[in-house]
Amino acid sequence: MVEKTSSNSTATMPSPVPGKGKRLLAQVAFLAALMAFLGWSWTGTEMNLSELANSGPRLSNFLSRMFPPDLTWTPTEARPFVPPLRLAGETVAVTLQISLLGTFLGTLAAFGLGFLAAENLTPRWVHHSVKTFLALLRSIPVLVLALLFVAAVGLGPFPGVLAIAIHSIGMLGKLFAEQCESAEWGVWEALDSAGAGWLQKIRFAIWPQVAPQFASLILFRIDMNIRDSAVLGFVGVGGLGLWIENYRRAFDYQSVATMVIVTMLVVLAVEQTSIQIRRRLR
Question: Is domain 89-281 in CATH 1.10.3720.10, yes or no?
């Protein structure tokens, strides 16, 4: 009787969860690989916390040359350069024009490519080719694109618009495709069974689901492109970045500080506007 009870208790003991040990081993391996990559990155980037701790005097010396920011309107004999406040309106306008027009052109191209790159909307050879093309576009840094177009069409805002547009195509096309791939499939199947064409299914099954997300992504991209267009001035594109670089080369750090502050205010204003618009789209 005792042996039977012991046998029954042994038989009812829970068995180990299948795959639990493998999952634990995979998690440990992932953490080990992550720590190894972080250590490799720390060594390769020559991280030096003691050097950072001792950088206070050099940093304060640099900032002291930027303070106070130049808030004058007319040049003086001591500072014959064009005062930044006089240029602020013009440079801000150029920066906004570059980012808005570049985003618009990039969105037009990315709109169609995003649907073609979605795995659930096109054959494999189509979406694979389009995704590869989009990846190649966004793999080129926007500064390199700007340098390329400066060499092709000359200095000014025009190469900045082209650089922003090309980079926006690669990024927005990828994000648009991901939104299409996450859309619900029921309406598409219903329209397909009714004999609707591909464009009709896009219009009535996919577009109503992804339109708010598309608008939010475009607003987010405008926000990013304003920052990028300000930086493009360092390679000859007009706008805020161009005058920041001009003042820096002239060692007019107080004017540099003014233009940096103007850039920050523009970015903050655009970001707050974008947030308000995205809230209304929800």
Answer: yes
Query: b vs e for 115-152, b when ≥16 Cβ sit within 10 Å of the residue's Cβ?
Result: bbbbeebbeeeebeebbeebeebbeeebbebbbbbbee
- Side-chain-side CA neighbours of 167 within 13 Å: the count stands at 28
Q: Locate 102 and state its tokens.
A: 């570049």
Q: Where are the alpha helices (DSSP H) in 14-156?
A: 20-44, 49-53, 56-66, 84-117, 124-139, 142-153
Residue 172: the pLDDT is 94
For 238, residues 6+ apart whose C-beta sits below 8 A from its C-beta are: 91, 94, 98, 155, 156, 157, 160
pLDDT at 75: 67
Domain boundaries, the chain: 89-281
User: How far does Cα 88 stand from its chain's mean position?
Assistant: 26
Instruction: Give the pLDDT of residue 2.
Output: 46
**187-201 residue pLDDT tens:** 888 887 887 788 888
In which residue ranges of the chain is pLDDT below 70? 1-19, 73, 75-81, 282
Angstrom distance (rounded) from CA 222 to CA 270: 9
Identify whether the C-beta of residue 85 lies closer than 8 Å to the C-beta of residue 73. Answer: yes
Distance CA 131, CA 73 (A): 50
Q: Are the beta carbons of 152 and 159 closer than 8 angstroms?
A: yes
Length of the chain (residues) = 282
| pLDDT tens-digit readout, 154-210 | 888 899 999 999 999 999 999 999 999 888 888 888 887 887 788 888 888 888 889
